[in-house]
Amino acid sequence: MALRVTFLGTAGAIPTTERNPSSVFVAREGEGLLFDAGEGTQRQMMRFGTGFSVSHLFVTHLHGDHVLGIPGLLQTMAFNDREEPLAIHTPHGTRQQLKSLVNALGNRPSFPVRISEVGGGDVAYRAEEYEVRAFETDHDTRSVGYALVEDDRKGRFDRERAEELGVPVGPKFSKLHEGEPVELEDGTVVDPEQVVGDPRPGRSIVYTGDTRPAEATIAAADGPDLLIHDATFADDRADRATDTAHSTARQAAEIANRAGADRLALMHLSSRYAGRTEDHERQAREVFAGDADDVFVPQDGQYLEIPYPDDDEQ
Questions:
Q1: Which of 33, 29, 45 shows the shortest CA–CA distance to 89?
Q2: With 234 labelled, which of 24, 250, 278, 311 sits at a CA distance of 20 to 30 A?
Q3: What is said about its interaction partners and assembly (predicted)?
Q4: Model confidence over 44-70: pLDDT tens digits?
Q5: All residues at 6 or more sequence positions from 82 whose CB lies less than 8 Å from its CB, including other chains
Q6: What is the pTM of this model?
Q7: Nearest-5° angle of CA 13, CA 16, CA 18?
């Protein structure tokens, strides 16, 4: 089951010629989820081929570089004759501000837009096989991060063992894999535990938005496959990071270690580093516990396919 992350905008508050303001698109088996929508997000979606089939938009906070793309995106959706509702999730206490932004052009969108407030610990969206959880972040305004966490998958089905136990090939295999015992013709009962292994973990992605290093990020998911973390500054502006409620690349890597993240994407780079990402990557790699290649500053338009932890999609 495909899970793809596309980095639409990776800049800090001020865009550069190479980087758009913050936005990340996640596609999971045909469903589109958007995390933040900085100015120009609609163009980035066209440019990098994500399409506009977004069912949920998750807003980390209401600073302009994370939300000013919303009015234009909604207008484009309306021009494309969208009828499906769009759910927008925003931190507690910001619904009215976001509603004003949605209606900034003086008229309501031609399709339903539903705005809900979320706080740390809330499940913002529960789908059939995964959920998106909000967690507390440490910025200079009301803010949250989001973690997409898939449910555990069924354990592996041991067909060879099932046949050894006399289970005939067919519907009884499926019942066992679904957790139901089956009775054989001779009256023997075969339990699922005899032929099905332990549940296997799903995948998870954590997106912090803007934040100082925060304990809640560590607990947001158990060993995320990908942590997308604020890394606005390098070590040369560590004091500035603290003062402005952001993180350095090194701090992001320290959080990644404590969270057990497999990969770390360094986001929201200040425009003072335009065209220069070497220091961010070097400083993060100096402390990151995993493979150095798994720490990176994504380029706009870069995408990642997130595999299952055991590289098995069954």
A1: 33
A2: 24
A3: Homodimer.
A4: 999 999 999 999 999 999 999 999 999
A5: 52, 110, 111
A6: 0.90
A7: 130
- The Cα–Cα gap between 138 and 216 comes to 9
Q: Any known ligand binding at 65?
A: yes
Consult the annotation and say whether 230 binds a ligand: no
Could you identify the residue written with the tokens 């499926």? 174
Taking only the tens place, the pLDDT of each residue in 71-94 is: 999 999 999 999 999 999 999 999
| 151-197: pLDDT as tens digits | 998 888 888 898 888 889 889 888 988 888 988 989 888 888 887 88
- 35 Rama class: left (phi>0) / alpha (psi -120 to 50) / beta: beta
The residues annotated as belonging to the active site are: 65
280 is in an annotated binding site: no
- Residue 210 marked as a ligand binder: yes
Domain ranges of the chain: 3-153+200-306, 159-194
Q: Is the per-residue pLDDT at 255 higher than 80?
A: yes
Percent of the chain whose predicted confidence (pLDDT) is above 90:
79
Q: Does domain 3-153+200-306 have CATH number 1.10.3720.10?
A: no
